[in-house]
Amino acid sequence: MVNIKALSLATAVLSFAGAALSKSTTTKPAAAQNILPSTFTPPQVFKNTNIVRAINLEKSYPRNVVNVVIENVSPEAQDEYYIPFTTAQAEKLGNLEVKDNKDLTSPSFSFEAVSIDGASDTQLYKVQLPQPLAPKAKQTLRISYAFLSSVRPLPAAVAQQDPQFLVYEFSAYWPSAYATTQQETEIKFPGANVPEYTAGVEGNADSAKKTGSKLTYGPYKKVAAGTTQPVRVRYEHTQPLIHVSRLERDIEVSHWGGNIAFEDRYTIVNQAANLSTQFNRV
Predict the structure, then answer these.
(1) Is the pLDDT of residue 21 over 60?
(2) Is residue 268, in this structure, part of any structural domain at all?
(3) Peptide bond into 195 cis (omega under 30)
(4) Fewer C-beta neighbours within 10 Å, C or N terminus of the chain?
(5) For residue 136, is it within any domain?
(6) Quick check: 103 and 111 in contact, CB under 8 A?
(7) Would the pTM count as exceeding 0.90?
(8) Is residue 255 included in any domain, yes or no?
Protein backbone atom coordinates (compact mmCIF):
# COMPACT_ATOMS: atom_id res chain seq x y z
CA MET A 1 0.00 0.00 0.00
CA VAL A 2 1.58 3.26 -1.12
CA ASN A 3 0.52 6.44 0.65
CA ILE A 4 0.44 9.39 -1.72
CA LYS A 5 -1.67 11.64 0.47
CA ALA A 6 -0.34 15.06 -0.45
CA LEU A 7 -0.13 14.50 -4.21
CA SER A 8 -3.40 12.61 -4.40
CA LEU A 9 -5.20 15.20 -2.29
CA ALA A 10 -4.03 17.99 -4.57
CA THR A 11 -5.00 15.99 -7.65
CA ALA A 12 -8.40 15.18 -6.17
CA VAL A 13 -9.08 18.80 -5.25
CA LEU A 14 -8.17 19.92 -8.78
CA SER A 15 -10.36 17.19 -10.26
CA PHE A 16 -13.32 18.16 -8.08
CA ALA A 17 -12.84 21.83 -8.95
CA GLY A 18 -12.62 21.05 -12.65
CA ALA A 19 -15.78 18.98 -12.53
CA ALA A 20 -17.63 21.68 -10.61
CA LEU A 21 -16.56 24.44 -12.97
CA SER A 22 -17.49 22.38 -16.01
CA LYS A 23 -21.03 22.14 -14.63
CA SER A 24 -21.03 25.84 -13.68
CA THR A 25 -22.33 25.13 -10.20
CA THR A 26 -19.67 26.76 -8.05
CA THR A 27 -18.06 30.16 -7.91
CA LYS A 28 -14.50 30.84 -8.92
CA PRO A 29 -11.85 32.03 -6.44
CA ALA A 30 -11.10 35.73 -6.49
CA ALA A 31 -7.68 35.18 -8.08
CA ALA A 32 -9.26 33.56 -11.14
CA GLN A 33 -11.81 36.28 -11.85
CA ASN A 34 -11.74 38.60 -14.87
CA ILE A 35 -11.38 42.28 -14.00
CA LEU A 36 -13.53 44.83 -15.79
CA PRO A 37 -12.85 48.60 -15.84
CA SER A 38 -14.44 50.72 -13.11
CA THR A 39 -16.69 52.40 -15.71
CA PHE A 40 -18.29 49.10 -16.75
CA THR A 41 -22.02 48.52 -16.36
CA PRO A 42 -23.87 45.59 -17.93
CA PRO A 43 -25.31 46.66 -21.30
CA GLN A 44 -29.05 47.21 -21.02
CA VAL A 45 -29.88 44.75 -23.78
CA PHE A 46 -32.34 42.76 -21.65
CA LYS A 47 -35.29 43.51 -19.44
CA ASN A 48 -36.88 41.17 -16.90
CA THR A 49 -40.56 40.98 -17.78
CA ASN A 50 -41.35 38.87 -14.71
CA ILE A 51 -39.46 37.52 -11.69
CA VAL A 52 -40.71 34.95 -9.18
CA ARG A 53 -38.22 34.24 -6.40
CA ALA A 54 -38.58 31.53 -3.74
CA ILE A 55 -36.42 31.70 -0.60
CA ASN A 56 -36.41 28.54 1.50
CA LEU A 57 -35.37 28.95 5.16
CA GLU A 58 -36.26 25.45 6.32
CA LYS A 59 -32.60 24.40 6.43
CA SER A 60 -29.69 26.09 8.21
CA TYR A 61 -28.89 28.20 5.14
CA PRO A 62 -31.09 30.20 2.74
CA ARG A 63 -31.78 28.57 -0.62
CA ASN A 64 -32.93 30.75 -3.51
CA VAL A 65 -34.68 29.69 -6.70
CA VAL A 66 -35.40 32.56 -9.10
CA ASN A 67 -37.45 32.18 -12.26
CA VAL A 68 -36.74 35.13 -14.56
CA VAL A 69 -38.45 35.81 -17.87
CA ILE A 70 -35.92 37.84 -19.87
CA GLU A 71 -36.60 39.71 -23.10
CA ASN A 72 -34.04 40.96 -25.60
CA VAL A 73 -34.82 44.67 -26.02
CA SER A 74 -31.85 45.41 -28.30
CA PRO A 75 -31.90 45.36 -32.12
CA GLU A 76 -29.35 42.51 -32.23
CA ALA A 77 -29.21 38.95 -30.89
CA GLN A 78 -27.70 38.70 -27.39
CA ASP A 79 -26.16 35.79 -25.46
CA GLU A 80 -24.63 37.28 -22.26
CA TYR A 81 -26.77 37.86 -19.15
CA TYR A 82 -25.23 39.35 -15.98
CA ILE A 83 -26.19 38.44 -12.42
CA PRO A 84 -24.97 40.82 -9.66
CA PHE A 85 -24.14 40.03 -6.05
CA THR A 86 -22.52 42.18 -3.39
CA THR A 87 -18.98 41.25 -2.39
CA ALA A 88 -20.25 39.97 0.97
CA GLN A 89 -22.85 37.80 -0.75
CA ALA A 90 -20.31 36.43 -3.23
CA GLU A 91 -18.07 35.33 -0.36
CA LYS A 92 -20.95 33.23 1.05
CA LEU A 93 -22.27 31.97 -2.27
CA GLY A 94 -22.28 28.20 -1.88
CA ASN A 95 -23.80 27.15 -5.19
CA LEU A 96 -24.94 28.83 -8.38
CA GLU A 97 -26.71 27.17 -11.28
CA VAL A 98 -28.52 28.61 -14.29
CA LYS A 99 -30.82 26.56 -16.52
CA ASP A 100 -33.57 26.94 -19.07
CA ASN A 101 -36.71 26.71 -16.92
CA LYS A 102 -38.56 25.00 -19.76
CA ASP A 103 -35.91 22.27 -20.06
CA LEU A 104 -34.49 21.48 -16.62
CA THR A 105 -32.99 18.19 -17.83
CA SER A 106 -30.61 20.03 -20.17
CA PRO A 107 -27.07 20.92 -19.03
CA SER A 108 -26.54 24.00 -16.89
CA PHE A 109 -25.50 27.19 -18.61
CA SER A 110 -21.83 28.10 -18.34
CA PHE A 111 -20.85 31.28 -16.51
CA GLU A 112 -17.79 33.09 -15.23
CA ALA A 113 -17.15 35.44 -12.32
CA VAL A 114 -16.09 38.95 -13.26
CA SER A 115 -15.08 41.79 -10.95
CA ILE A 116 -15.18 45.53 -11.45
CA ASP A 117 -11.90 47.35 -10.91
CA GLY A 118 -11.78 49.90 -8.11
CA ALA A 119 -13.88 50.23 -4.96
CA SER A 120 -17.02 48.63 -6.39
CA ASP A 121 -18.99 46.42 -4.01
CA THR A 122 -20.48 44.46 -6.92
CA GLN A 123 -19.48 40.97 -7.99
CA LEU A 124 -20.87 40.02 -11.39
CA TYR A 125 -21.45 36.60 -12.90
CA LYS A 126 -21.67 36.55 -16.69
CA VAL A 127 -23.99 33.80 -17.92
CA GLN A 128 -23.53 32.49 -21.44
CA LEU A 129 -26.83 31.61 -23.07
CA PRO A 130 -26.49 28.42 -25.17
CA GLN A 131 -28.17 30.15 -28.13
CA PRO A 132 -28.26 33.91 -28.82
CA LEU A 133 -31.67 35.37 -28.03
CA ALA A 134 -33.19 37.16 -31.01
CA PRO A 135 -34.56 40.73 -30.74
CA LYS A 136 -37.92 40.82 -28.88
CA ALA A 137 -37.59 37.11 -28.05
CA LYS A 138 -38.06 35.84 -24.49
CA GLN A 139 -36.54 33.05 -22.42
CA THR A 140 -37.21 31.87 -18.87
CA LEU A 141 -34.11 31.31 -16.74
CA ARG A 142 -34.08 29.25 -13.57
CA ILE A 143 -31.35 30.65 -11.31
CA SER A 144 -30.66 28.73 -8.09
CA TYR A 145 -28.09 29.39 -5.38
CA ALA A 146 -27.52 29.24 -1.62
CA PHE A 147 -25.91 31.59 0.90
CA LEU A 148 -23.80 29.91 3.59
CA SER A 149 -23.45 31.26 7.14
CA SER A 150 -26.04 33.95 6.39
CA VAL A 151 -28.43 33.52 9.31
CA ARG A 152 -27.78 34.26 12.97
CA PRO A 153 -29.57 33.45 16.23
CA LEU A 154 -31.37 36.28 18.01
CA PRO A 155 -31.08 36.30 20.94
CA ALA A 156 -27.60 34.81 20.76
CA ALA A 157 -28.18 32.86 24.01
CA VAL A 158 -31.38 31.18 25.21
CA ALA A 159 -32.49 29.07 28.13
CA GLN A 160 -32.46 25.32 27.54
CA GLN A 161 -36.25 25.05 27.36
CA ASP A 162 -36.68 28.11 25.11
CA PRO A 163 -37.03 28.00 21.31
CA GLN A 164 -34.35 29.36 19.02
CA PHE A 165 -35.06 32.22 16.63
CA LEU A 166 -32.97 33.12 13.60
CA VAL A 167 -32.63 36.40 11.71
CA TYR A 168 -32.17 36.66 7.95
CA GLU A 169 -31.68 39.95 6.10
CA PHE A 170 -32.14 40.32 2.34
CA SER A 171 -33.70 42.57 -0.30
CA ALA A 172 -37.42 42.44 -1.05
CA TYR A 173 -36.42 43.17 -4.65
CA TRP A 174 -34.29 40.57 -6.37
CA PRO A 175 -31.12 42.53 -7.19
CA SER A 176 -30.77 42.62 -10.97
CA ALA A 177 -28.56 44.36 -13.50
CA TYR A 178 -31.65 44.99 -15.63
CA ALA A 179 -34.97 46.81 -15.28
CA THR A 180 -37.84 44.60 -14.14
CA THR A 181 -41.48 44.92 -15.17
CA GLN A 182 -42.89 42.86 -12.30
CA GLN A 183 -41.51 40.69 -9.51
CA GLU A 184 -42.53 38.81 -6.38
CA THR A 185 -40.69 36.99 -3.59
CA GLU A 186 -42.04 34.15 -1.44
CA ILE A 187 -40.26 33.02 1.75
CA LYS A 188 -40.86 29.54 3.18
CA PHE A 189 -40.17 29.13 6.92
CA PRO A 190 -39.80 25.91 8.96
CA GLY A 191 -43.08 26.76 10.71
CA ALA A 192 -45.67 29.47 11.24
CA ASN A 193 -43.94 31.13 14.22
CA VAL A 194 -42.51 34.30 12.63
CA PRO A 195 -42.71 37.00 15.33
CA GLU A 196 -40.97 39.71 13.31
CA TYR A 197 -40.75 40.68 9.64
CA THR A 198 -40.48 43.94 7.73
CA ALA A 199 -44.02 44.84 6.75
CA GLY A 200 -43.86 48.04 4.74
CA VAL A 201 -42.11 48.34 1.40
CA GLU A 202 -42.56 51.18 -1.10
CA GLY A 203 -44.64 53.04 1.49
CA ASN A 204 -47.21 50.24 1.47
CA ALA A 205 -47.76 48.76 4.92
CA ASP A 206 -49.52 45.76 3.37
CA SER A 207 -46.84 44.88 0.81
CA ALA A 208 -45.83 41.83 2.90
CA LYS A 209 -48.48 39.11 3.20
CA LYS A 210 -48.08 36.19 5.64
CA THR A 211 -50.09 32.99 5.42
CA GLY A 212 -49.08 30.16 7.73
CA SER A 213 -45.40 29.35 7.16
CA LYS A 214 -45.16 31.52 4.02
CA LEU A 215 -44.46 35.22 3.58
CA THR A 216 -44.82 37.04 0.27
CA TYR A 217 -43.32 40.37 -0.80
CA GLY A 218 -44.93 41.94 -3.84
CA PRO A 219 -45.82 41.91 -6.58
CA TYR A 220 -43.79 45.05 -7.33
CA LYS A 221 -43.94 46.76 -10.70
CA LYS A 222 -41.39 48.75 -12.70
CA VAL A 223 -38.29 48.19 -10.56
CA ALA A 224 -35.20 49.96 -11.88
CA ALA A 225 -31.92 48.10 -12.45
CA GLY A 226 -29.79 47.84 -9.33
CA THR A 227 -32.65 48.71 -6.94
CA THR A 228 -32.69 47.03 -3.53
CA GLN A 229 -35.07 47.21 -0.56
CA PRO A 230 -33.61 45.84 2.71
CA VAL A 231 -35.98 43.71 4.78
CA ARG A 232 -35.54 41.42 7.77
CA VAL A 233 -37.30 38.34 9.08
CA ARG A 234 -37.02 36.63 12.47
CA TYR A 235 -38.38 33.12 12.71
CA GLU A 236 -38.34 30.02 14.90
CA HIS A 237 -35.81 27.38 13.89
CA THR A 238 -35.14 24.61 16.39
CA GLN A 239 -32.49 22.70 14.43
CA PRO A 240 -28.67 23.05 14.77
CA LEU A 241 -26.72 25.38 12.50
CA ILE A 242 -24.00 22.98 11.40
CA HIS A 243 -20.85 24.60 9.99
CA VAL A 244 -17.80 22.71 8.71
CA SER A 245 -14.85 24.88 9.68
CA ARG A 246 -12.25 22.45 8.31
CA LEU A 247 -12.27 19.46 5.97
CA GLU A 248 -9.25 17.20 5.40
CA ARG A 249 -9.18 14.30 2.94
CA ASP A 250 -6.54 11.58 2.64
CA ILE A 251 -6.45 9.31 -0.39
CA GLU A 252 -4.53 6.05 -0.49
CA VAL A 253 -4.01 4.08 -3.70
CA SER A 254 -3.07 0.38 -3.70
CA HIS A 255 -0.74 -0.71 -6.49
CA TRP A 256 -1.42 -4.35 -5.68
CA GLY A 257 -5.15 -4.64 -5.23
CA GLY A 258 -6.19 -1.90 -7.60
CA ASN A 259 -8.04 -0.20 -4.73
CA ILE A 260 -8.43 3.41 -3.66
CA ALA A 261 -9.34 4.42 -0.10
CA PHE A 262 -10.65 7.75 1.16
CA GLU A 263 -10.54 9.13 4.68
CA ASP A 264 -12.37 12.39 5.45
CA ARG A 265 -11.99 14.37 8.67
CA TYR A 266 -14.52 17.10 9.44
CA THR A 267 -14.26 19.79 12.10
CA ILE A 268 -17.88 20.69 12.80
CA VAL A 269 -19.18 23.70 14.75
CA ASN A 270 -22.77 24.33 15.77
CA GLN A 271 -23.40 28.06 15.21
CA ALA A 272 -26.81 27.97 16.82
CA ALA A 273 -27.76 29.95 19.94
CA ASN A 274 -25.69 29.33 23.05
CA LEU A 275 -27.24 28.27 26.35
CA SER A 276 -27.74 31.13 28.79
CA THR A 277 -27.44 28.67 31.70
CA GLN A 278 -25.63 25.39 32.27
CA PHE A 279 -26.94 22.33 30.43
CA ASN A 280 -29.29 20.20 32.52
CA ARG A 281 -30.24 16.61 31.61
CA VAL A 282 -33.17 16.55 34.03
Answers:
(1) no
(2) yes
(3) no
(4) C
(5) no
(6) no
(7) no
(8) yes
Average pLDDT, the chain: 86
Rounded Cα gap, residues 278 and 159, in angstroms: 9
Mean pLDDT of 200-224: 86
Residues with Cβ within 8 Å of residue 258, at least 6 apart in sequence: none
Would you say 233 and 186 are in contact if contact means Cβ atoms under 8 Å apart? Answer: no
Hey, which bits of the chain come out as E strands?
Answer: 2-3, 34-36, 46-56, 63-72, 78-86, 93-100, 110-116, 122-133, 138-147, 152-153, 157-158, 165-171, 180-188, 196-197, 208-211, 214-223, 230-236, 242-253, 260-270, 274-275
Q: What residue numbers bound the domain in which 270 lies?
A: 2-18+242-275
- Residues recorded for the chain: 282
Q: Are 113 and 125 a contacting pair, CB within 8 Å?
A: yes
Residues 274/164, Cβ–Cβ less than 8 Å? no
Name residue 244's amino acid: V
Would you say residue 256 lies in a domain?
yes
Domain total of the chain: 1
Whole-number Å distance between alpha carbons of 33 and 25: 15
201: DSSP letter: B
